[in-house]
Predict the 3D structure of the following.
Amino acid sequence: MAVENKINVNDLNLHYGDFQALYDINIGIKEKEVTALIGPSGCGKSTFLRTLNRMNDLIDIVKIDGDIHYDDKNIYSQWDVIELRKKVGMVFQKPNPFPMSIYDNIAYGPRTHGVKNKSILTDIVERSLEQASLWDEVKDRLHKPALGLSGGQQQRLCIARVLAVEPDVVLMDEPTSALDPISTSRIEDLIDELKKSYTIVIVTHNMQQAGRISDKTAFFLHGKIEEFGPTDEIFFNPASPKTEEYISGKFG
Amino acid sequence: MIRQHYEDDLAELSREIMKMGLRVEEAINKAIDSLKAKDAELAQQVIDEDDIIDQMEKDLCDKCALIIAREQPVAGDLRHLISAIKIITDIERIADHAAHVAKRTIAMQGEDFIKPLVDIPRMAELGCGMLSRAITAYVEKDAEAAIKVAAEDDTLDELHKQIVRELLTYMIEKPQNIEGGIALMYISRFLERVGDHVRNICEWVVFAETGEHENL
């Protein structure tokens, strides 16, 4: 197994009942890089993203073949799902803070994982909010409801919430599609900062965003990876004409 | 096909580059005609019209910048736009050479040529043909054609060397021929430079198609 790949996917096939959503996916996700997943709606990129921390387990009719290794251990047979989801966190399209205070939103994860000590929790809250570059904006209102924050702040809170449980990989499913341009660029800056410590996989419909923030790009089409490679190559000289048409906005 | 407006913009850009190319061919032809006819008035026209070509280059550069700003092109389209910006500079430089030929014509003040003009008009014809084929290769996205056009530059280089050798014999023979010889040598040199610019254009056509920088 390759050493530097955080996640290795081999011959992954995924069915929703009779419908096959992913075909023969093979991809290596490198440590401390941003990997962008792009492709038209229904191409399987979000399904694939959710597979990486076994979110699809929640759907009964899903059948998965093939291997996914995280840190060289099979995520289905060698990882406990709770432990896996702690290490492989997820940020969703719409900010979804819990209806509780900012502090409790962040402390929720560590508490679930057994952290009881108040000062440790406070440290975690501060560190996580700092990392998500939200600390300065909320430090004076930690005990106010999280739902009172703006959309962009809520999304950074959700990122902080993921970081609080000290993950290794952060999965992001269109994290900025519900945000205005300023909030979007703050999140993009944040992703750039986070990749120093974390491995990031991001689904985005914003082609320019993929071009700006990712190191590698995978183009999904009809449940298959049409092309995967360095983002610079995908956006400047893609190998596949279909990739070219899609990123040029000529279909999709 | 979606993004029709974008496609239209790119097609329009190609048409404008062809138009600019045609104008520059016309400038070279006029410059040579004025030389052959020792027609200072026609030569002056070439010099005056060079401003129009300069303006075309600036307008096309702005057009490319606008398409980039508005459409954020990537991959092949982006490479084509980058190539367009580079190509129009070379086309404009070719027009400068036409103007240089015209200036020499005026400076010669109707003096007789030290030898009959044979190879110089041939060089101009070859240069114009190369320019036209190179621009067609750009518009038709044909890297192979561009590589062939670039190879024709060798003929132009050979013709120039041959002209220089021939003029030298005239000048050695008779020092009174030196002034007229040097004038023709310059003109031959300007036309030889046309080929170098066409070669550059061809390299940018290859870049637009393949993303590779080739030394043609």
About this structure: Chain A is about 35% helix and 25% strand. The radius of gyration of chain A is 18 Å.
